[in-house]
Design a protein that fits this description.
The complex is a heterodimer of chains A (61) and B (481). Chain A is built from 2 helices and no strands. Chain A has 61 residues and is mainly α. In chain B, the strands form 2 sheets. In chain B, strands 1-3-2-4-6-5-12-13-9-7-8 form an 11-stranded mixed sheet, with helices on both faces. Classes of the chains: A mainly alpha (61), B alpha/beta (481).
């Protein structure tokens, strides 16, 4: 039954949606990298920024 | 004529000698090609050697000398480029197997055009980490580049071949790219000078990208004078790179010897003093003492900055390669493949937040330059690890080499500050210090680097690649001018 390991389910779903054909042997490497990415992201996701904070890149019409 | 041995000559020396007629461009290029043939089997820095093209160009330079035409400032200087730069008639590999199937480039990268317009001679394309997603200089398709100071050790990456070729005396000048540290890390591990200019200063036109938000291009050299000479020759707006700033050329060479009097300099503390091997502190303290630095500065939220750079890199890199991941997954380095696949799955909210944090961080760091001209920081947490080494002990814990080589460079390139990486010739291996200036003040970073070089505090130690065993024991052979 799905749902016991959300990250694995997420990777599997993402692989299917993006047509990436992720081989089972690759899963540990992909998972390890995604864990690092999410862990790194928490460092700035938990940093308070106001709603009107502008992203760095600015588009000019 | 042609009695000058230019094997370890600087670009400045070569250009002067060619202009004076002391040596022909042809002789210089033959010397370079012979050294490459002899020594590159050890270093593995080149993926393509362009002998015929180089000889033709050298011939043209010599002919123009005979006609009495004014030579360019880099007349006869051999140089090579990381193989993500477009070179006519070569597929632009960017360190990959997949790109071998690309049609050959029909036009050189703009920086190659500018250097050749100044009289320099392209001799080849250089090895690099696959698609620039690398800090080691290793490459499973082309083999690792080898550190000229100890060939069992890595060069650092991703501009590994660039570091090896310059440190190994094959060419005096090489070009690389730097997204999170890929000029500064090999400069540090190979013990040479590297310049990562301000983001948007040098055009990336006709280079294979990695992370558009963070990609820079820049030179390596064995002296500060050469670094300034080459940098000046490459400056100028190019509308074909949308990121390239519309700024006038701001020459640095003439200002190089202005000294450091009056410059306000601080050493980065906190994050930039943690997680380092002892050599890092030795090098940083030596540079700080020479400059009489007596203040520290905290770069705020550096760990978050590094994290945001990490996530932006992962997301944009993955987006660039998504189609290749679908169609050629088996042709990637598996380590790169898995990183890229993970990157395809990053929620947009995280990337958007990382870019918002980037603006916040930029404003806070630029505020530091209101009463500072230069910040000093380490370039790498250690000297060159062994090729293939996966982990090291840092602060008493085992950590991954690959992920940690860029800990000090990422928070700086994240906001595009100009940096000169300067080599401190420690025994047995060199390590660099970052000289960081405010945006567009490459002149200040180069001035400080030049002052340190003149004092003898920093130097490029001549590597032992010429000796039969070529491992580890090297002689001081720095040149100035």
């Amino acid at each position: 039954m799905k749902g016991s390991d959300p990250l694995s389910d997420y990777i599997e779903a993402g692989g299917q949606l993006f047509e990436l054909n992720i081989e089972p042997a690759w899963n540990p490497g992909v998972r390890a990298n995604l864990e690092v990415i999410f862990r790194q992201a928490m460092l700035f996701m938990t940093f308070e920024l106001p709603d009107d904070a502008e992203p760095a890149p600015i588009f000019k019409a | 004529m042609d009695t000058l041995d230019t094997s370890w000559s600087t670009a400045t020396e070569i250009a002067r000698a060619v202009a004076a007629g002391t040596v022909s461009a042809g002789a210089v290029i033959e010397t370079a090609l012979a050294r490459i043939t002899q020594r590159d089997p050890i270093l593995n820095s080149f993926t393509a050697v362009l002998a015929e093209r180089a000889r033709k160009r050298a011939q043209a330079i010599d002919l123009s000398h005979v006609k009495g035409e004014t030579p360019g400032p880099l007349a006869g200087v051999p140089f090579a480029v990381k193989n993500l730069f477009d070179v006519v008639d070569l597929p632009t590999l960017a360190g990959s197997k997949i790109n071998r199937g690309r049609p050959p480039a029909t036009r050189d990268a703009v920086l190659i055009e500018r250097l050749e317009a100044a009289g320099a001679v392209l001799v080849g394309a250089l090895n690099m980490g696959e698609y620039a997603y690398d800090f080691t200089g290793e490459n499973i398709h082309d083999g690792p580049s080898h550190n000229p100071h100890d060939i069992s050790r890595m060069t650092g990456g991703s501009s590994g071949g660039s570091g090896a070729a310059v440190a190994g005396g094959l060419v005096p000048i090489a070009l690389g790219s730097d997204t999170n540290g890929s000029i500064r890390v090999p400069a540090s591990l190979c013990g040479i000078f590297g310049l990562k200019p301000t983001y948007g200063r040098l055009p990336r036109t006709r280079t294979f990208p990695f992370v558009a938000s963070l990609d820079h291009v820049g030179p390596f050299a064995r002296t500060t004078r050469d670094l300034a000479l080459v940098y000046d020759a490459m400056q100028g707006h190019d509308p074909d790179d949308p990121v390239c700033a519309e700024r006038a050329v701001e020459p640095t060479l003439a200002r190089l010897a202005e000294g450091v009097a009056g410059l306000r300099i601080a050493v980065a503390n906190g994050y930039f003093r943690k997680g380092a091997f002892p050599e890092v502190h030795v090098a940083l303290d030596r540079v700080g003492a020479a400059l009489h630095v007596n203040r520290d500065v905290e770069i705020p939220e550096a760990p978050r900055a590094r994290a945001a750079a990490y996530v932006i890199t992962a997301a944009e890199g993955a987006a660039l390669h998504l189609e290749r991941l679908r169609t050629h997954a088996h042709d990637f380095d598996p380590a790169v493949r898995d990183r890229l696949i993970a990157g395809t799955m990053i929620p947009a909210a995280l990337v958007n937040r990382a870019q918002k944090f980037r603006r916040w961080y930029r404003e806070r760091v630029l505020a530091l330059f209101a009463d500072l001209d230069v910040i000093l920081a380490p370039a790498t947490p250690c000297t060159a690890p062994l090729i293939g080494q996966q982990t090291f002990i840092l602060d008493g814990t085992e950590q991954l080499v690959r992920a940690n080589l860029g800990i000090y460079t990422q928070p700086i390139s994240f906001i595009g500050l100009p940096v000169v990486a300067v080599p401190v010739a420690l025994d047995p291996l060199p390590i660099a210090v970052q000289i960081i200036a405010a945006p567009w003040r490459e002149d200040i970073a180069l001035r400080v680097a030049h002052a340190l070089e003149t004092m003898g505090v920093i130097a490029v130690r001549r590597s032992t690649v010429d000796e039969p065993e070529g491992k580890g024991i090297s002689a001081l052979g720095s040149r100035s001018g």
